Amino acid sequence: MEKNMHGMIAGGSLPPIPAKRYFTIGEVGELCDVKPHVLRYWEQEFNQLNPQKRRGNRRYYQHHEVVLIRRIRELLYEEGFTINGAKLRLNESSQENSVQVQTQQRANGQHQDSIRTELEAVLKILSK
Asked: In this structure, are residues 54 and 62 in contact, taking their beta carbons and an 8 Å threshold?
């Protein structure tokens, strides 16, 4: 992969995330084009980022954390947010997602209620 003058992958194209359960800090660094010391710093700044620590304090990141790191990287390096600005944006995004999930759950519940009503009507017809 070609790097630009800042040492980052040119064109913003990061490699695909492999289908693995856990990633080491070195693997995450390569997948996200971020140095390990930066990842350790981001762990302190972004409480959503909490890799599992095992033998010898080795960090193991899960898939959703790699995706989150890519989003943090995008906010900081590509969109020009400050750390605090990125934190706010991530919190806004998680709140929006929460509202969308709640709305979808309500819609699903209403849909289930209408299906239940229709099935009860069918049962009444069949029981005659």
From this structure: no
